[in-house]
Each structure stands twice: as C-alpha cells, then as structure tokens.
Amino acid sequence: MALSTALTLSIALLALFVCAVVSSDPDPLQDFCIGDLSAVPGINGFPCRNASTVTVDDFIYSGIVNSSNTTNINRSGAIFGTVLRFPGLNTLGLSIARLDFLPEGIIPPHTHPRASEMVYVEEGSVYAAIVTADNRLFARVMSRGEVMVIPRGLIHWQMNVGRTNAKVIATLNSQLPGIQFIARSMFGAQPEVPDEVLEKTFFLDERTISQVRSNFV
After folding, report:
1. pLDDT tens across 87-137, in order?
2. Whole-number Cα distances in Å, 12 to 8, 17, 26
3. Backbone phi, then psi, for 93, in 5-degree steps?
4. Which of 54, 136, 151, 157 makes the best surface tag, with the fewest CB within 10 Å?
C-alpha cells in the first residue's frame, strides 16, 4: 500500500514537472501573431492583429538597410529591430540589430537582461569581448564572416580596431531583449547615483565624477 502511494505521488510530481517545463515556453497556437502595438502588451507580447489585415510587408523589416548614426562620442551607432519596430516578431522570441562603427568606434560595455546574442562581422575588424560572472575575460579580434555568441546577461562590447568602417549584424533570442550600458547606468541615472557610491565603487574623486557625468547629460 505504501509502495503504491509513493508511486502515485512520484507520477503526480513528474506530471507537474513536465507541465511546468512545457508551460514555460509554450508552442505557438497559430502560424503568426503580428503584434498590435496600439494595445497593452502581456507577458508573452502584444495581442495579435486581425489576420485578415496582415500583408507580406508585416514579415519584412527594412530598418537596417541604411547605416546608423555614428556622429557621437562613441563613434558608433545601432539600429534595433525589436517587436516595437518590427511587429512581425511578436511571440517569436527573436530580434535583430545593425551596429556601425567608424575607425576606433565602440559599442561600450553593456548587457541584455532578457536575451543571448550572436554577432556576425559583415565588414571590418572588430575587437569583441565577454566578461563572465567570475570576472573572466574572453576577447579577440574578429574578422569578416566570423560569429561570436554572447550568453544572456553577460557584460560585453565591440570595438572597431581597423582603419576602415566596420559593420556587425546581431541577432538576439528575445523580441524585446533590453539593453543596459554599464557606464550610462551608473553615471547617467536619474535621480543621480550618490557621489559616495561612485567614489567607493570606482575610486574616483568628485571632480572626475562630475566630468564623467557630463558625457551622459
């Protein structure tokens, strides 16, 4: 009797585990779900637009055809194709980005809290790097045609080390991956991070902190 009860309990627990695994990333219930961006998004994206209004243009994104704006202090720019710009990505768990670099340009250290990433060097020579949670650096110069994978949430950056412009195409496994730049978050946050925190964290004096903050105004 005890054995039967234990077996029944084990089967029940296994069933709950399987259900939990399946429900964590449910299969789509339709061929596509073009996002209705005028509606409030839910936990898995936006509500679907009426399928009768969908055209081929909803499956095509032209936002990364032209280069991004690189006239800034970092000498780089990015154009993101997330669900907010490309509603066809809704519920698919995908997004894309184009990164452009002038010589010596950099996409500064940042993270994507909701996505892993693959970066493909289409033009130029790019120094790409990842820093793990145990502070281990993985980095090298990537050439045209090479791909790097960046695990979710890890600090990473790309920098053009060539003499010509560089171009990178990135894909991410979230329709809205999010992005958080380390320096901007600490020195450009509003309200401001207290000087004392920055002094003790980065070993900077008040004058230097003020100078760094001025870059994020």
Report:
1. 999 999 999 999 999 999 999 999 999 999 999 999 999 999 999 999 999
2. 6, 9, 21
3. 70, 40
4. 136
Cβ neighbors of 139 (< 8 A, separation 6 or more) are 127, 128, 129, 130
pTM: 0.84
List the one residue out of 102, 77, 75, 100 whose CA is nearest residue 164: 102
pLDDT tens across 133-166, in order?
A: 999 999 999 999 999 999 999 999 999 999 999 9
Q: Which of 132, 133, 122 is nearest to 171 (CA)?
A: 122
For 205, residues 6+ apart whose C-beta sits below 8 A from its C-beta are 199
Tokens 């949670």 correspond to 133
Strands 76-81 and 95-101: antiparallel
Phi then psi dihedrals of residue 215, to 5 deg: -75, -15
User: Distance from first CA to last CA of the chain, Å, rounded?
Assistant: 72
Top pLDDT among 107 and 217 is at 107
Complete edge-to-edge strand list for the sheet that includes strand 137-142: 137-142, 126-131, 155-160, 106-111, 180-181
Amino acid type, 150? I
The C-alpha atoms of residue 48 and residue 50 are separated, in whole angstroms, by 6
Tell me, what amino acid is at 192?
Answer: E
Cβ atoms of 135 and 5 closer than 8 Å: no
